[in-house]
Automatic annotation (TrEMBL):
Domain of life: Bacteria
UniProt xrefs under Pfam families: Asparaginase_2 (PF01112)
GO molecular-function terms, A-Z: hydrolase activity, acting on carbon-nitrogen (but not peptide) bonds, in linear amides
Binding positions for substrate per the UniProt entry: 213-216, 235-238
Residues that span the membrane, as ranges: none
Site (Cleavage): residue numbering on this chain: 184-185
Gene3D superfamilies per record: (Glycosyl)asparaginase
An annotated GO cellular component: cytoplasm
Name of the featured protein: Asparaginase
Residues forming the catalytic site: 185 (nucleophile)
InterPro entries to which the protein is assigned, alphabetical: Ntn_hydrolases_N (IPR029055), Peptidase_T2 (IPR000246)
Amino acid sequence: MAFAGVSGTIGEAGPLALLHGGAWAIPDTALPDHREGLAEAMATAQSAFSDAAPAIDAATRIVAALEGHGAFDAGCGAMLNRAGEIELDAGLMDGRTGRYGGVMAVQQLAHPIRVARDLLQHGNGQAALLAGEGAEAFAERHGHPLVANETLICERERQRYAQHRAEAAVDSSDSFLPNNAPSDTVGALVRDAEGRLAAATSTGGTPFKWPGRVGDSPLPGAGYYATEDVAACATGWGEAIAGHSLCVRAVDAVSAGDAPQVVVERLLTSMHERYTHPRGEGARAGLLVLPASGPGAWAFITPRMAWGVATTTRTAMAIRRETPLDLRHPS
Ligand code: ASP
């Protein structure tokens, strides 16, 4: 099967952040919010570059900005599970050390990516992934305040939940059908001035998901991965992304010498063929890849993907397939 999405290469040498706010049929009405959220994240990337933040800290800051914006399915914009609660997953990886941290199914953290960052640092070989209350206890021990679940619920998602409850049969995997409900996970890849790489991702998961459901986003190799040479992050149907080990395969293929754009197209296509939704549709996702030198690549086989790129001096973003990159040069 030929690649049935859109893709490209982007970026130049030097510090670069590639970030996304989900891949799905983002409606026109949601474009302003998504653009604003991406713009904030790109500004955060540039301030991390000016602070000479290491890639892993820059990625944490970018994803924390996306978690805090509210437009996306992460942090305070997350979608509710069937029990009417927020359950968040996040993870990140430092390319140079291979260390990673991930938290999953957490209910009381406004910025799970920051806790994942601390776990990477302080897990000391005892834990790199923590779930639920264990993750929250770790967070408290490391100075992250716990918040009431209720305070993470925004009005938009409260309404979506009410609508799902009113519908006779809602299947959370339906959000990955071509024109369906949101999948607004966020993620970032960063290459810093020293050529270090990091990958990070954060999500509220799928709308109306089963309580306890965990997707690809907190799992290294699935929703994110980074080595000294290449970093990758993904968004889309988590069950398929994890099964296909999408990000580690992307990183390995680029490390082996394949062109980043060829790799993202090939892997999204093979995942689409291998994993089929119960309603017969192939799995869909978006994928970003960033090598330690040279341009990065992006691709999606969903109707739209909200994504952006920041260098020290320039930013660009795109959402619609038909929109050319809107390059903006800060004055
Ligand atoms: N990959 C996420 C998950 O399955 C959803 C998304 O990317 O929007 O939890």
